[in-house]
């Protein structure tokens, strides 16, 4: 994945601001849904993960929009897995949550709007692209099923 300085300066269109915390919570939520073997409410998942319900709902909404889980409203509602956990890689989650934008924005925001800042921004874009490629390569090799097995 190539990261350029213009792309990182744009705001994300995603429904929840992502960083490594949301990535970790998303992975845990998917593992919890697999272990639960049925529907779970966002409140149950938030309680299980000791996290804020609002944040969990935003994460679950993003995962649902990506087709990883599905939601049902009403008395018998809740969330359940839509895809097999063997087919959901950590790279899928990382990409859907646009976690790379968190580190990209942080590094790029630290550069000033002048000649030297522009030179540094170009260098940072190259570094960020390498980081992204390496990260995705590692995350592509792991699935939610792997995490479920390791967490037993």
Task: Compile the SSE list and pairings.
Elements: H1 5-9, H2 20-36, H3 42-49, H4 53-65, E1 69-72, E2 78-81, H5 90-96, H6 100-109, H7 115-140, H8 144-150
Antiparallel strand pairs: 1-2
Features:
mainly alpha, elongated, disordered N terminus
Short account of what is shown:
By secondary structure, this protein is mainly alpha-helical.
Structure description:
This protein has 152 residues and is mainly α. It has a single domain, classed as Winged helix-like DNA-binding domain superfamily/Winged helix DNA-binding domain (Arc Repressor Mutant, subunit A, Orthogonal Bundle), CATH 1.10.10. The chain is 61% helix and 5% strand. The protein has eight helices and two strands, in the order H-H-H-H-E-E-H-H-H-H. It has helices at 5-9, 20-36, 42-49, 53-65, 90-96, 100-109, 115-140, 144-150; strands spanning 69-72, 78-81. A two-stranded antiparallel ribbon has the order 1-2. A hairpin with a 5-residue loop joins strand 1 and strand 2 (78-81). Helix 6 (100-109) runs antiparallel to helix 7. The longest helix is centred in the last third of the chain and has 26 residues, at 115-140. Residues 1-16 have low confidence and may be disordered.
